[in-house]
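quick one, 169 residues, struct below
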Amino acid sequence: MASSASSSSTNQDSELIFNYDRNPSWIYDVFLSFCDKDTSESFQSNLYTALTADGIVVYKDEDKLLNRDQIITSSVLHAIEGSRLSIIVFSKIYADSTWCLQELEKITECRRATGQIVVPVFYDVDLSDVLHQEDLLGEASEYLKQTILKKDKLIREVCNISGFAVHSR
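---
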């Protein structure tokens, strides 16, 4: 349990991030990107609840829970574009999800184009594990090699941003 001093500090920090220079074109304060197969529902729920309890408007993609590994919907892309900040919860199989990688690609586009703030969270995985995945290129087709290299480039770009490590055990 966090002390009241650190809780107060966290509330002040979130007020600075979310109230500073509010752009009327933002629909959400936070876009939450996660792999539902790999992060516990309690972690996602607690994070969402903590953010919304402070009055932060959060987009948590419920469609992903129903339509796993399908093409990302335009409403999700619009939510990413309309968010001031994206929290990416990297987990052991985040990069295996086509849906999550499409979100990651759009988030990095928005970061470059509009200065969207990106906060990586490493959930039950170390930064080094995310960056140094097994070499999958071997005998792969050229298309698959390009896809893997693109995925790796996106992940490395986001992992170079300061983030947080969360371990459930």
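Confidence is low (pLDDT under 50) at residues 1-18, 134-140.
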